[in-house]
Design goal:
Strand order of the largest sheet: 1-2-3-4-5
Order of helices and strands: HEEEHEE
Number of helices: 2
Radius of gyration: 14 Å
Largest sheet: 5 strands, mixed
Distance between the termini: 43 Å
Number of strands: 5
Helix content: 25-40%
Length: about 110
């Protein structure tokens, strides 16, 4: 799993520090920059392909998404969602359900 995931993460300029399966059977990676990534499970057949696809989607879009908020440090990534992902960004407060988060004002 580690060897299949590393090439996908190359654009992030980060290395996998640890990769494990949680008690609930979901993959979790901690990167050398301190980011924790909840990668989710593979498909019912135990294939890691779904995890690779979700990770690749995040890598392709993360710079644009994080850039909307002034490029804060990513602290936590949750890729367990089928059609997207959730981020915890340093200094950005979560928004209320249904209310989009506004980027911080530049000073």
């Amino acid at each position: 799993a580690h060897q299949r995931l590393m090439p996908v993460l190359l654009p992030l300029n980060a290395q996998i520090e640890s990769l494990r399966i949680t008690r609930r059977g979901s993959w979790q990676a901690e990167l050398d920059n301190g980011v924790v990534m909840e990668l989710g499970r593979g498909n019912a057949a135990g294939d890691f392909h779904d995890v690779i696809e979700r990770t690749a989607r995040f890598v392709r879009t993360h710079a644009e998404v994080v850039g909307r908020f002034g490029n804060p440090k990513v602290q936590h990534v949750d890729l367990r969602h089928g059609n997207g992902y959730a981020l915890q960004l340093e200094g950005v407060e979560p928004s209320a359900p249904g209310k989009p988060q506004q980027p911080p004002k530049k000073r």
